[in-house]
Amino acid sequence: MYWYQFLILIFERPFPTTLKSKEQIPFWLLTIGAIIVLVFSRLVKDGMFTDGVLYAAIAHNLAIGKGTFWHPYFDNYLFTFFHQQPPLTFGLQALFYKTFGDSIYVERGYSFLTVCISALLITKIWKLINNDNEEWKSMSWLPVFFWIIMPACFFAYSNNLEENTMGVFILIAVLFIYKGLLKQRLGWVVLGSAFTVIASLCKGFPGLFPIVIPIFYFIVVKPKYNPINVIVFSGMAIIVPFIIYALLLANDTIYNSLTAYLNDRVINSIQQVSNVDTRFYLLIQLFFVQLMPPVIITAILLFAKGLKTVKAQFDDTTYKRNIKLFVLIGVSASFPLIVTKEQRVFYLVPSLPYYAIALSLIAVPALSIFIKKIDLKSNLYKLWVGLTSAFVVISLVVSCIGFGQAGRDKDKLHDVYAFGKMIPAGSDVNVSKDTWQDWSLHNYFVRSFNISLDMDSAKHEYYILDRSNNESQPAIFKTLVAKGEKYELYKR
Known about the structure:
Number of strands: 5
Number of helices: 22
Strand order of the largest sheet: 3-5-4
Order of helices and strands: HHHHHHHHHHHHHHHHHHHHEHHEEEE
Distance between the termini: 65 Å
Radius of gyration: 25 Å
Number of domains: 2
Shape: globular
């Protein structure tokens, strides 16, 4: 077995006999290389987006006994009870800390695992859609490639965001529900619907959108179901989450935790929070930024082969219905986000696999024509395999060279690590009001040293001054302990 066959093994098993054509090998290598460059190479470096470090800190606290599953703890002042999100992501990541230790590469390994599982699930859905077309079925790398090159996607997976974990359970739910509808098996639909509850316990209501898939399926695909089955399948997909939540909320601890999330996060964000000028910000981002890379590739393929060449496929009713279905699934995951004006681009991440699948369905007729012409014995094919193999190897080498280097917040990380070794772990440290609003500073100190920052009074042993704020330390903190790249550490 060649080394690249082992890499592809995680997606196509067994290899090479079930890879319907060896023409797909370099395309899988290209896709794996893209994942390494866009996600892995960033994860091996220190420093992450603020939210990712926050989630890692909460999960790490849970692993070492600070807080409980339904009442997660962050620090002594900012969030003694973190109820901004449901707790399942923290609980799962805490298991990784308990298993693999305290290294910052635990959360990075966790995040990379979610991208690998998500890619695998996308291939499973693609094969289910194209089960009757062996040629297209073997091109399961295409939706994975389209998905990973969307900017919000590789940003989320390289920064340990909660959308990563929620997205895994959503993909499982979609796979099960779609399989149940395709094979007319109610059990798969019920199981898939149950997984939407698990997804929602990772990051709230956005995880529940797959429950509407049966309705879309019956409207768009128009299968030969009797009316009673239509009602039963659609109804059970919606009823199951209500039953599960009714059972969960009967427990007072769970009730208090989830109602705190509902009141303080969901309702508050709808009524009070706004970080965008227009409610349609995310939709603009979706259509004019996130979908642009795969849309451009699809347009080039269609233009290169000519629409007449692939028109026969577009005339196929089942083919068109599958495209519409997965566009609607993407819409159901992304359009409801405009209900609030608190919008961040990575909120779109759970919807992106379904847009990637829909665009892949549009592109695959033209792309398959190109792939059919590949001569496995030609020098051009050997060169193509060699180039994509080199791409994977070079990507891995470059990633390893960057291992442990600061990817972002270099000066801040330098000072946090330096000061954290001088301040007793678990201490409270005074900062000014302006410095206290530096959320990433909170996150890094809590994640690495369980140090809480307090601005209320000069009552602690240490004080951290941010030189960029042109501030001076309170008079009682006279001793300069350390001068860092960005901050200064004083002691009483």
